[in-house]
Amino acid sequence: MPGYSTRTLLVHVGGHAFRLRVLSDLQQFSDPDGHGERLGISSAQWSLFGQLWPAGRLLAQAMATANVDGKRILEVGCGIGLASLVLQQRGAEIVASDIHPLAEPFLAYNSALNALDSVHYRQMDWDLPLETLGRFDMIIASDVLYERGHAALLADVVERHAQAAAEVVVSDPGRGNSAPFSRHLASLGFSVTESREALEGEPDIPHGRLLHYRRDERATSVTAP
């Protein structure tokens, strides 16, 4: 990619090998037209989307075995998009989203790198409603609760885009903001189960928690104003 140094990773998820083009390190930055700055992405945050983080691998592992039959799925803050690639490989109906202007070309490149059709992508700012996106049976995300205000913002995304009966799956490395997010989702009728998870090939090293929220149609009728 022009202006960037990249490298290719080989990652195994659910018995399949995925090749990923990622940024070489956290020092990569190029925003010549100021697009990222206008979106509120600072130079310190710029390269974060282009890394494969442990929480992203945990979410991808969960999606390798999740029941996705007949479900429309949204990945929020997809970054490099490994979980979306896993779902695309499984034939799921997946839409990936992020605010970063380079997330889409990186995801398209990595789809091709793995001989997959391009994952459907929508740029999303959590502050702004995106009515044409529609509603989903499952919403997934990894390590998106790294600032205090993100809990309420992500809950708003869930409220706008989750079906009456829906699941939300979040892999969280433990940054301290999952409790307010869980409270927000409880007010929307979701219950939560939590499990500690390790990465494939590293069974003795916990890498975070998997938060699995569920809501049925009866819960939405109870919580509706």
From TrEMBL:
GO cellular component, one term: cytoplasm
Keyword Cell inner membrane: no
Principal location: cytoplasm
Database matches in InterPro entries: CaM-Lys-N-MeTrfase (IPR025800), Methyltransf_16 (IPR019410), SAM-dependent_MTases_sf (IPR029063)
Enzyme class, UniProt record, top EC level: transferase
Keywords associated with the record: Cytoplasm, Methyltransferase, Transferase
EC code: 2.1.1.60
One term of GO molecular function: calmodulin-lysine N-methyltransferase activity
Subcellular location: Cytoplasm
CDD domains: AdoMet_MTases
One record GO biological process: methylation
Pfam families: Methyltransf_16
SUPFAM superfamilies hit by this protein: S-adenosyl-L-methionine-dependent methyltransferases (SSF53335)
Superkingdom field: Bacteria
Name of the protein this chain belongs to: Calmodulin-lysine N-methyltransferase
UniProt source species: Marilutibacter aestuarii
Taxonomic lineage of the native organism: Bacteria, Pseudomonadati, Pseudomonadota, Gammaproteobacteria, Lysobacterales
